[in-house]
Amino acid sequence: MNEGIKNAFYKDYTQQIKSFAMNKLSSFNLGSIKVFKQQEFIIDQVPIEGKIVLKFGEKINEDNISKGIIYETETSKDVKAIFDGVVEKIEANDEYGLLITIDHKNGYKSIFGYLDEIRLTEGETVKKEW
Known about the structure:
- By secondary structure, the protein is an alpha+beta fold.
- The protein has helices spanning about 1-10, 15-25; strands spanning about 50-55, 70, 85-95, 95-105, 110-115, 125.
- It is extended.
- The protein starts with a helix and ends with a strand.
């Protein structure tokens, strides 16, 4: 019995705690989002102020879940980079309108859509703004 207690006491519960936190995050309307992923990637600010109308992982319809976060904002608000990165792509499409992809060079990318204008160019470096 002592061995069982010892093993439970010294067990690394990091993954279970992260999993629990990620499941609970979807139920909060956060002004500052903290997401724990590989390499302790943490989002500690939002790219734009506004009301969250669709959360990451939220069911859109019977067949689809959200792969991003949709904010409702006033028009012409500036969107801020959440991490340093490089503008990978600027494009326009029927689904998301004018959009920009920023590669953060750590296995993560940010994609911002429904934009009024983009004042950056592909290949340009962006810095996280506070």
